[in-house]
Design goal:
The structure holds three protein chains of three kinds. Chain A folds into two domains: 279 residues, no CATH class; 221 residues, no CATH class. Chain A contains 19 helices and two strands. Chain A has a two-stranded antiparallel sheet. In chain A, helix 4 packs antiparallel against helix 5, helix 12 crosses helix 15 and helix 14 packs antiparallel against helix 16. Chain A starts with a helix and ends with a helix. Chain B is globular. In chain C, 57% of the residues lie in helices and 3% in strands. The model of chain C has no long low-confidence stretch (mean pLDDT 80). The chains are: A mainly alpha, B mainly alpha, C mainly alpha. Chains in contact: A-B, A-C, B-C. At the A-C interface, helix 6, helix 8, helix 9, helix 11 and helix 13 of A face helix 2, helix 3, helix 5 and helix 6 of C.
Chain lengths: 533, 355, 116
């Protein structure tokens, strides 16, 4: 076994371990020098990125990978259910991990100058890295209890990061709300995991999925898990913590919080598609369970889109507006996922067209996860740049910044077009997939998706007018363009956005379609662990 | 391996087509503008300007000084008109003209047209905001509110048409493309209920058109009498001239969309023509159709009704016109269900014995 | 390889090729730029004509010439006032209300999924 195979074999735990160890080493390294510390964190994350690429290539070519802790053999001999902690990686996992690592690297790059004037930065980097670790853990793990542990780590570290500006009462308020709400959510998830363990004597996702019967307890578990994770990902009407948390934390933190939110969404997908994947078309009930879940998720998704867009239109704080937009974008993903579930249920017995439409919707929804992270992220970075230059983000006191901050203005324009799904940006490709598939489920879904996307344009044109256009305001005459590392971070995101916008097929064929197939194919996820099944 | 010859041919077609369509749009846009002004003058008992007046206007504007106000952000202010006109011209690539299929036939569909239609309005809004004048800002934010208002009914029409086409042709994979819609006119394939629904949708689109072109009664963004030309208040010279051209091309585009969605019929078949003569005859017929659409949805409404307040516009579109559009949608959905369930309920053309 | 770059995105009901649109935009942009070049370029800088037009009134201070964010889209929020009243009431910033929404959703889903 040469070194490359060895790295490929051990890459799943290393992806979690490298950021974790870096987190604990950062306070020590920062004793030397600030620049050394920043470089150290950046390089370690780049190494993690390399590991992600190696693992991704391996999984996309060779299929699902498992990694069992504490043993070389895939499973302990003589046992028919796995008892050890294990990671299970399929294409969907890879998709999410790639999004996370992109966000993490850009966040660190941006923090370089953005956080320069703050103190307590050694702890800041430690907590950021712990958050990244927990997101990776949530995505890679194949074990429910493990998932809960990483979820708790992400809750606590997010709370600490949201409260980074301790001198501001909004930050403390938002952090308090966040910790209360996500702890309650996480405890309900723990309760659900306990119920599953009590019934099936297992915590491994594949094992539970294999044994699940959809009894009354399972229904309760489904409700608790889906609601808890939907709240973690900011689905209306449980989204209220999200605008507070996003708008009062530093921009670099918000950027990585988007990743944490999407990890919650990923957990929801795992629950619905993997644990309950074989029960979606259970015929023992009046309605297919898949149909019910689909209708609920779609309704809440549409509600999210509506509430997010309407609230964003009336806010007058830049970051609050982006935060509400993020709620709306999450709504698009849930709309697409729910449409797939409805399509799946309607396609039985003789309507295969619906399944085709649903599959396109699912692809659009997954593609939108990537696009949303980049678009919303870019806008948050721009908001951070505005804050860095002027120390405020309120639309009522800014104006005329396009004169002094030309590059930031251009990046903002790219973000504006991308988030409102204007062609030829990346947001358009994924939204097009959603529009042109959900209309077969119901024309109303597609109509609402289109009109709300257009309203998003209005939201950010308002920002463009109030912050960047208009006459030169005397108090903002001496504003300077932000430092190079922030511009580089924004430029990097903008380049990815434009690349995906011009060549959407490359991402869809190589990442999104395998991810969608992995989600749809519950059996292969289960049989990798349980064998045969 | 790529077919290099075919590829470069397509490339050449795209280049020539874009330039040709741009000139076509500008030329006929200005002519239609002249006809519109002449007709509305006659309706009001005036003589009106000659039909070539819009050309003279443009030439005159291009010889005037191109003032950039102090308060404006110069680069945004100057680029906004160009982007608006470019966006409008690029829509023509996706629209069938007469019996000629769209040039970008297999690379875009109605949703792209819907989005591209926003670009001229968006350019005007951003240009207005960038001029740093109070009048222009008020006008621009009104235009934005109007835009959100009328896109709702417009989206309903597009999705409804695609839905019914998909339901009828379950195997089709391009129901959103305009060439498919033009090749499968819906009027005959609907029952009575669906026919009524389709007429309602046409009515809705006709009411959306004046708002899309910011004409009376939905011209509160420009409102000369209260906010002095609104979002164009600070524009002059060639920049204003380009906005003038954008308006002209946009009129042709909107009329062509109505023609393509609702009246895609061609007459060359009646005369048994083919090849070049057929294309020519259909082209002339298309020009006449566009003229009639402009007459009904722009000229007549403009002469007959007074300007509305901005919150009235939003209220009308988000409540009444949207409701009307939804009624049309429901009619068409019921129509399909009726056809599935009852034998006697047949498409109109088969009742009339045309098929 | 180049084929995958040029392929249109298929959505099952339509297609989308950004490159064609991008090319068309570039060509049209060149054309319009040339047309625009025929126009007169200059104006008298620093004279009265570059002042903002205010129907003959003197210009206000720069701060007041800029319409602030909270005043935009009045027509829209005015027309949909009833919707906004409900939404504003929902987002009252009270943590216990936030938790209440969570409990309401759990309860509603119990009824829908558990009972049916």
């Amino acid at each position: 076994m040469n070194w490359f195979e060895l790295i490929t074999l051990h890459s799943p735990p290393l992806i979690v371990a490298v950021p974790l160890l870096t987190a604990f080493l950062t306070p020590l390294v920062s004793k030397i020098n600030e620049i050394v510390r920043n470089l150290f964190v950046l390089i370690m994350l780049c190494i993690t990125g390399l590991l992600v690429l190696i693992l991704g290539y391996d999984v996309l070519t060779n299929g699902i990978r498992t990694y069992v802790f504490g043993g070389g053999a895939p499973l302990p001999s003589g046992m028919n259910i796995p008892v050890r902690i294990m990671f299970e990686i399929d294409s969907m996992t890879i998709f999410m991990v790639i999004i996370t690592i992109i966000l993490a690297i850009i966040c660190i790059l941006y923090s370089w100058s953005f956080m320069k004037d703050q103190d307590g930065l050694d702890k800041y980097y430690t907590i950021i890295l712990l958050l990244v670790t927990s997101i990776f853990g949530m995505e890679l793990t194949g074990d429910l209890f493990n998932f809960f542990v990483f979820l708790e780590i992400s809750c606590i570290t997010s709370c600490a990061l949201i409260a980074f500006y301790v001198h501001k009462k909004e930050s403390l308020d938002a952090a308090f709300k966040y910790i209360v709400i996500s702890s309650i959510g996480a405890l309900f998830i723990l309760f659900a995991i306990g119920l599953l363990y009590a019934q099936y004597n297992a915590l491994n996702m594949a094992t539970i999925a294999n044994a699940i019967q959809f009894t009354f307890f399972d229904k309760i578990v489904l409700v608790l898990l889906v609601t808890g994770l939907a709240m973690k990902s900011g689905l209306a009407p449980m989204h209220m913590w999200l605008p507070d948390a996003y708008s009062s934390s530093p921009a670099s933190v918000t950027f990585i919080l988007v990743g944490a939110t999407l990890a919650g969404l990923y957990g929801g997908l795992r629950v619905i598609f993997t644990i309950y994947g074989n029960q979606l078309l259970n015929t023992g009930f009046t309605f297919y369970p898949g149909l019910l879940i689909g209708i609920i998720i779609t309704t809440l998704g549409v509600l999210s889109i509506f509430i997010g867009v309407f609230m964003a239109l009336k806010r007058s704080d830049f970051k609050k507006m982006i935060a509400y937009t993020a709620v709306a974008e999450i709504g698009y993903m849930f709309l697409a996922i729910g449409s797939y579930l409805i399509g799946l249920a309607l396609s039985v017995p003789d309507n295969p067209q619906m399944l085709v439409a649903g599959t396109y919707a699912l692809k659009g929804g997954l593609f939108h996860i990537l696009n949303d992270a980049l678009d919303i992220g870019l806008l948050f970075l721009v908001a951070g740049a505005v804050y860095y230059a002027t120390k405020q983000t309120s639309l009522n006191s800014l104006g005329g910044l396009a004169r002094n901050m030309k590059y930031t203005t251009i990046f903002f324009l790219i973000g504006l077009l991308a988030v409102s799904g204007m062609p030829p940006m990346n947001g358009f490709a994924s939204k097009l997939l959603i529009y042109q598939s959900t209309y077969q489920i119901s024309p109303i879904l597609s109509i609402i998706a289109i009109i709300c996307s257009i309203m998003l344009l209005a939201v950010f044109v308002k920002v463009f007018q109030s912050i960047f256009l208009g006459p030169e305001i005397p108090s903002l005459k001496n504003v300077k363009e932000v430092p190079k590392s922030m511009l580089a971070a924004m430029a990097l995101v903008a380049c990815i956005i434009i690349f995906i916008g011009l060549f959407p097929n490359i991402i869809i064929d190589n990442l999104v379609t395998p991810a969608a197939e992995a989600l749809q194919n519950t059996t292969s996820y289960i049989s990798t662990i349980v064998g045969g099944a | 391996m790529v077919n290099m010859a075919g590829f470069s041919l397509e490339f050449l077609l795209l280049v020539v087509g874009t330039i040709g369509l741009a000139l076509f749009g500008i030329f006929f846009g200005l002519i239609y503008k002249g006809i519109d002004r002449k007709l509305s003058a006659h309706m009001q008992g005036r003589i009106g300007p000659p039909i070539r007046q819009p050309f003279r206007d443009v030439v005159k504007l291009f010889t005037k000084e191109n003032i950039v106000p102090d308060n404006a952000i110069a680069w945004v202010f100057n680029w906004a008109p160009i982007i608006g006109l470019v966006g409008t011209i690029s829509i023509l690539l996706y629209l069938p003209i007469g019996s000629i299929n769209p040039i970008a036939n297999t690379s875009g569909d109605l949703i792209i047209v819907l989005y591209l239609l926003m670009i001229p309005s968006l350019a005007m809004v951003i240009g207005g905001f960038a001029s740093g004048s109070i009048y222009a800002t008020v006008g621009a934010q009104r235009e934005m509110a109007t835009m959100i208002a009328y896109e709702f009914p417009f989206a309903i029409i597009i999705v409804t048409i695609a839905w019914i086409l998909k339901t009828i042709n379950i195997e089709a994979t391009n129901v959103f493309s305009l060439s498919f819609i033009a090749a499968n006119p819906l009027w005959g394939n609907l029952g009575i209920l669906g026919f009524i629904g389709f007429i309602i949708l046409l009515l809705v689109l006709v009411i959306v058109t004046p708002a899309e072109l910011s004409k009376i009664p939905f011209d509160s963004p420009e409102a000369e009498t209260e906010i002095a030309g609104g979002l164009l208040a600070e524009y002059s010279g060639r920049n204003l001239g380009i906005f003038y051209l954008t308006d002209a091309v946009k009129t042709v585009v909107m009329a062509s969309i109505i023609v393509a969605l609702f009246f895609p019929y061609n007459i060359s078949g009646f005369f048994g023509l083919n090849n070049i003569p057929a294309i020519a005859v259909d082209f002339v017929f298309y020009l006449i159709k566009v003229l009639f659409v402009i007459l009904f949805s722009v000229t007549l409404i403009r002469v007959a009704i007074a300007r509305l307040k901005i919150d009235q516009i939003v209220g009308i579109y988000w409540l009444w016109i949207t409701l009307l559009g939804l009624v049309g949608l429901i009619c068409i959905m019921w129509d399909y269900q009726m056809m599935l369930r009852y034998e006697f309920y047949k498409p109109i053309f088969s009742i009339l014995g045309l098929q | 390889m180049i084929d995958t770059f040029l392929k249109s995105l298929e959505t099952g009901s339509g297609f989308w090729n950004p490159l064609v649109l991008g090319l068309a935009i570039i060509i049209a942009l060149l054309l319009i730029y040339i047309i625009r070049g025929f126009g007169k370029k200059d104006y008298k800088k620093g004279t009265e004509q570059t002042k903002a037009f205010l129907s003959g009134n003197p210009e206000y201070s720069k701060d007041e010439m800029h319409i602030k964010g909270k005043n935009l889209y009045w027509g829209f929020t005015q027309a949909l006032k009833s919707v906004y009243n409900v939404l504003e009431k929902m987002h009252n910033g009270n943590t216990s209300d936030y938790v209440l929404w969570f409990v309401i959703i759990i309860g509603a889903l119990f009824i829908i999924i558990g009972v049916i």
